[in-house]
Amino acid sequence: SEEEFYDALSSPVEDVPFFEAPSGSLKRASSTRRKKLNKQESLKNMTELQLRFEVAEVLIKLCRLTDNTETPVLQLEVVGLGTELKLRTFDMTASAFLHEICLLCPEYMDDNDKPVYLVTTLDNVEDDLLTLEYIKADINGPELKTAYQNILQKIKVNFSSLDVHLHTETLLNAVNYLNSLLPKQETKVAEEPVHEKTEDKKDVLKKLTSKKSKYDDVIDLNIWADLSCLRVFIREKKHRIAEIHIEGLDSQVIMKKTATEMTAKLKNIVIVDSDEMALYNKPLYITGNEVFNFKMISYVNATDGIAYTNMDVVDNRVYLTVGCIQVVFVNKFFSSILAFINNFQAAKEALTEATVQAAEKAATGVKELAERSSRLALDINIKAPVVIVPQSAVSANVLVADLGLITVKNRFFIAKTKTRYNLPPVVDSMTVKLSELKLYRSCYEQNSFQTEVQLLQPLNLEVAVERNLAAAWYNEVPDIEISGRLKPMNLILSQEDITTILRTLNENIGESSGASPPSQELKDTTSRSDIRSTSEHSAGVTVVTSAVVELHSPVKIKTTLKLDFRFDSLTLVLYNSNSKQGTNLDQRDDLLKLAEFKLVLMSAAVKMLSDGSVNASVKLANCTLDDKRQAIDKATPRMVEMKHGFEKRVMMDISYKQGRDGTVLDMIVQEIYLCASMEFLLTVADIFLKANAESAAAQRNLRQSLPLKEQAPVQPVSTMEMNIIVKNPEIVFVADLTRSDAPALVVTSQCEVFIKNSPERYSMTAAVKEIQVKACPFLAEKRKGNVTTVLQPCDFFFEMKQSGNNPQSADLMIKSLTVKVSPIIINTVITITSALYRTAETTEEEISQIPPGLWNMKDLKDLKLWFLEESNDSEDTNPVTELVPTGQLLKMSIESVVLTLEAGVGHRTVPMLLAKSSFLGEVKNWSTLINLHSQLELEVHYFNEMFGVWEPLLEPLEIEKTDLFKPWILEIKACFLKLNFGKSFMKKKAKKTLVESDAEEENYKVPEYKTVISVSSKDQLNITLSKCGLQMLSNLGTAFAEAASQTSDIFKKDRAPFVLINSLGLAITVLPSDSFSVLNVEFGAKVFNLEDGETLNMEYVRTKNESEQFTAMTTLSSKRFYIQICPHNHSTVEKIPLTKVGRCIYRVRHEESGVERSIVCQIDTVEGSKMITIRSPVQVYVQDPSLHCSFI
Predict the structure, then answer these.
(1) Cβ atoms 824, 775 nearer than 8 A
(2) CB neighbour burial string for 909-934, b if at least 16 within 10 angstroms, e if fewer
(3) How many domains would you assign to the chain?
(4) Is 1111 part of any domain?
(5) Strand, coil or helix: what is 372?
(6) How many CB atoms lie within 10 A of CB 104?
(7) DSSP 8-state class, residue 644
(8) Are 900 and 917 spatial neighbours (Cβ–Cβ below 8 Å)?
(9) How far, in Å, CA of 1020 to CA of 712, rounded?
């Protein structure tokens, strides 16, 4: 270079005097020395320009012209506004400062008759309100690394202290005034979208990463921002609402060529309730050292090129630590805040519009982000807020929800694909953990919580979220897949806890803020500006027209969301109320434990597709309910569970499908065992009823204070289908849990309900199959041989239809209904239902006192009796509501109803009275004007114990010109009427000795009939009563009366309808007819051997047709009910009928000797059962064992 050439050493020829140097070389040497000096001077940072500008005070007034008079609306005062600029060789420093600022409204005065300030810094007398410093350094400067720490541009913002007063009336006035000043908006023309050239994904990995620059360590921009204190005061004209204090907000932004780093810290935030009478004066405050600490690092082109396949490299990293924030939710306070915000509806609508536009831009950005699979690494630790909900604004009882600790971390991995892609799809795997979540009840006294009563034991939840970053082009995995597991969840509630929760919902949630709307004066003063503003805004509406052309192409359906949750268990433990005073509230007494309800192993799965369809399913493995009362001895504590032997199945399975054709909901409940102990269920229900009763007053106040909300418009109903199936439930009704053999009713059935609803048609079909009711002991191991069928298996079918606006039509059909009523059944029902009616002791005050002079003579004029009151003709009659028929129709039909009244001993009682009927009826207009028309066929027989035969109690009717009979027919009509004949009518009656004048008239009130029931029969009613029938009815009534008054202990001995006793002295062989069913023997046996003294129990054979069963029991034909016997080594006796009571002698022949002998079949009735005794004609009973008898 030139410097290198002329900086060389001088040549030695200069010493020779006769050599002259060229003039040009001397000039170049002097210029080189001058450049060296300038270079040394240029390294010094010389000040080239310094400027300072300051304005001592600025005053701006905005006025409104009213009646040619200017009235100030807003006044802005700025004190100490200035700037400084210093320009040097290698840097530039610029600063701006603001000492004070005030914004006030002279039109409004505060409580001290001073103008209302919106923004003020009157308390800030030492420091400037705002200081802004900007330093820009030269990248080629000599001290860039030492003096400027490699920072090219640095911005420091310091905000000391500012007070903002949000005054409702003042702000509304200012907003309306400023809106009137806004210019008209010009119509915007829609811009055509610019289509950028998309880059092929195949070439992404072929890019080469850029070379590392020597300026990578240089910081392009460094921003510091510091907010010392910001106070916001919210108030209305009459009272102050709240104060918000924000302290210590520090933020920093560092921008480099390779990365951008942002940090933010907030030390404290406090919200104070300005109500001096408030018990909780801090609705929000911090318990730790800082509110949050945020750090985000964004790397530039970090995943470009070959680094895309490195899963440890990310585009952005986020670190967030949040301290514990305590929120005291007092609805009165938060309602006042919401009422304050709702006053600015116009501003809120503008904000909503801006939010929508920002959301659209954000959606575009998210779409672009998804296409290039940007990676965001998260490391978040949040000490979740503690939410405190007081019972009311003045109550010390609180509910505390500690949301525990939330941690969020993620990692990235390449998805396993079936096909090979040049650009591998990346999946973001995020883990969210929620630990130590708990809920408890406490008491707030002396500015602290005194006790903790646990309602929800510490809970842990872990959720895994997998996000497909290549969802725009890779659809083999869902866009978002969420799977979670909830550890065992334990809830503990007592009556006091439930009362506190209900009273909190009623009193705190129902307590209004009492905030008043803006004054009328404000509306009057701003009406003109509102009209002007409205007109101007309406003229400047932006109209954007766009044309969209869609090309119909097949779209592949993909899974957008997949959700899978699993709950290990959910346990609810109920405690009785603690009546003892002074006990420690933070401890539970195990003696007060009442019940434990547990849901075991629940799972939920949801799948959402891109076409809008949703598939969801919920499964419950088991559900248990246990009686935990220690003071009561129980045969079994289990009230609800899965039936034994079906543990591998799920108790409940719910599936939901939503698509274009509508929604379908399927629900299956199977193999559930329910012990419905009336006493236990009432005890559990009593806890909730008492808790609800204690909060009823607050609930009534809530209904009165809350305004009525406008009903939302009815949305069009899409097609909805619901299918509910209940398989093999077993419901046991029992009254006494202490005994395993306590009387119980067991109900088993299967239920199916199908509902389909669409805009054109509604239909519901319900079927109850094989419903059966049995009376038996409580536990299953005690039921063998002690089961009485109360209701024989029968089927119910119900169907309802409605097309469009047409009236509803329904059908109810029952094919056969067979009900048995016996003393043991009556005793069981009474014992179970006795728990429903708890007898209360009658106090002396409740006993009616006999009034004095009850039998003394009185004058009718002095008696105030409603039926003796005189009518007032001028009195207006009650308005009559017209009932319009709707055309609704319900058809009911029961083909056969068999009612059996039985008496006897044990569970196998004997029918004494049989009633058979059939029912056919119609119900019209059940929602308005009920009209019932039914027809009942009745046939009744009673059992003649003297002869052991069935005789008709209600005589059947002969059919003319035939030998057939028909049952008695009864017609029943009932209708809902509104008959208005006036309030009273006159009925004259002569009074002889009771009144003074014979001309007086009595007025009698006649009530308005609302229901008319008509019972009629066209046939003659013939009832036959005999001495034997009366005796039977007397015995039947006595048996039922004893069953109703005594306990079930008297029913222990079993006896069959037919009991065969062998008293012949020899073994006999018995062959019953096919109409008998032998008890307690092997199935399929036809011949039975009886030794001397043994018995054989028989009953009627059950048939499928109930009519045949009824006919067989009432006729007792000798051709069907008979037995054949064969004594040992004797011939077989012919058919012996078992229809009538009496004695018959039958001849048998000895097989070896051929001698004929006689046997007697004696039939007696004992309490309805037929006792058949096979004996010899002569029997001798020896009572004295010492006496010896011999026969000659």
Answers:
(1) yes
(2) bbbbbbbbbbbebebbbbeebbbbeb
(3) 2
(4) yes
(5) coil
(6) 20
(7) T
(8) no
(9) 61
Q: Which residue, among 281, 682, 277, 615, has the nearest Cα to 447 in the 3D structure?
A: 281
In whole angstroms, what is the distance from residue 1095 CA to residue 1080 CA? 11
Residues 303-354 pLDDT 10s: 887 888 888 888 889 999 988 888 888 888 888 888 888 877 655 565 566 5
Integer Cα distance of 666 and 654 in angstroms: 6
Distance CA 295, CA 709 (A): 45
Task: Spell out the SS3 assignment of 1052-1116.
Answer: CCCCCCEEEEEECCCCEEEEECCCEEECCCCCCCCCEEECCCCEEEEEECCCCCHHHHHHHHHHC
Query: How far apart are the C-alpha atoms of 668 and 724, rounded to whole Å?
Result: 6
Give the phi and the psi of residue 1015 in degrees, each rounded to 5. -120, 125
Mean pLDDT of 452-480: 88
Query: How many beta carbons lie within 10 A of that of residue 525, not counting itself?
Result: 19
Structure tokens at 175: 């907003």
In a domain, 1150, yes or no: yes
Both tokens assigned to 841: 């002791």
The whole model's pTM is what? Answer: 0.70
Largest CA distance in the chain: 197
Range of the domain at 31: 2-42
**CA distance linking residue 690 with residue 952, whole number of Å:** 54
Tokens of 550: 């869609």
Residue 1137 inside a domain? The answer is yes
DSSP collapsed to 3 states, 524-591:
HHCHHHHHHHHHHHHHCCCCCCCCCCCCCCCCCCCEEEEEEEEEEEEEEEEECCCCCCCCCCCCCCHH
Bridge partners of 675? 732
In a domain, 957, yes or no: no
Q: What are residue 572's DSSP bridge partners?
A: 491, 597
Rounded distance between C-alpha atoms, residue 64 and residue 734, angstroms: 83
Sign of the CA dihedral running 88, 90, 91, 92: positive
Eight-class DSSP state of 366: H
Are 269 and 287 spatial neighbours (Cβ–Cβ below 8 Å)? no
Q: What is the pLDDT of residues 702-717, one digit of tens each?
A: 444 444 444 444 444 5
